[in-house]
Write a structure and sequence with these properties.
Elements: E1 3-7, H1 11-23, E2 27-31, H2 37-43, E3 48-52, H3 60-69, E4 76-80, H4 85-93, E5 98-101, H5 106-124, E6 132-135, E7 138-141, E8 146-149, E9 152-155, H6 158-169, E10 175-176, H7 177-185, H8 193-207, E11 217-220, E12 224-227
Parallel strand pairs: 1-2, 1-3, 3-4, 4-5
Antiparallel strand pairs: 6-7, 7-8, 8-9, 10-12, 11-12
């Protein structure tokens, strides 16, 4: 049975979400304070965190960064009343996996959760015998999200890891931005093609000697991107 850590200070909303999620077969643990999240998460094993941005004490973005800083790769779905695009992007770049804005339909939330868990299973299912992929002295581990390049060791976000995996599996092929959006986020409404470009820039900074003149993660003008090994 899948387990969800629900972090929401609106007790009425949290109660409704918990009832609906449990009706769908999830085990749900609810906390209302931001400073309770790390302790509760480390106490149990969760398959996903539903994390409100606006929380008393510690905000959701800070919690996400703390979890990623500790090396936790659990999927995070932000729930918030905000609707500004730059804040959505900030959440994704902080290591979040998706973003849903209040008010939302429970069916949409369930679809987002199921999509995240489905893509998480795809990320875990390696086409190669090992979780680790190496090319020209570069390395990425699709299980731990650890990577190394010219700048040394680093840790990718889940979305960065998914983008690399998708491109690596289609080595030499031109992959469109829409293909990446479908594979990594699962829908077209958000994020935008520009968000994909931002993630590619971050990936190049990890693996390219000169990100402005990439050798591995190439732009295919008018289409998207291509991964090649020298």
């Amino acid at each position: 049975m899948r387990s969800i850590l629900l972090v929401e200070d609106d007790l009425h909303l949290a109660e409704g979400l918990q009832l609906n999620l449990e009706a769908e077969g999830f085990t749900v643990v609810h906390v209302a304070q931001g400073d309770q999240v790390i302790e509760e998460f480390e106490r149990g094993l969760f398959d996903l965190i539903l994390l409100d941005i606006m929380l008393p004490g510690v905000d959701g973005l800070s919690i996400c960064r703390q979890l990623r800083g500790k090396g936790y790769t659990v999927p995070i779905l932000f729930i918030t009343a905000r609707d500004q695009t730059d804040q959505k992007v900030e959440g994704l770049l902080a290591g979040g996996d998706d973003y849903i804005t209040k008010p939302f339909d429970t069916r949409e939330l369930l679809a987002r959760i199921q999509g995240i868990l489905r893509r998480d299973a795809w990320l875990a299912a390696q086409r190669t015998e090992r979780d680790q992929f190496e090319f020209d002295g570069r390395r990425i581990n699709f299980s731990t999200f650890e990577a190394s390049g010219p700048g040394g060791e680093t840790r990718l976000t889940r979305k960065e890891c998914m983008i690399v995996k998708y491109l690596v599996e289609r080595e030499g092929e031109a992959v469109s931005r829409d293909q990446l959006l479908d594979a990594v986020w699962g829908y077209h409404a958000f994020p935008t093609n520009r968000t994909v470009d931002n993630f590619i820039l971050r990936i190049r900074k990890v693996f390219e000697e000169d990100p402005r003149n990439p050798k591995y993660f190439h732009t295919v003008h008018g289409v998207g991107y291509r991964f090649v090994r020298e």
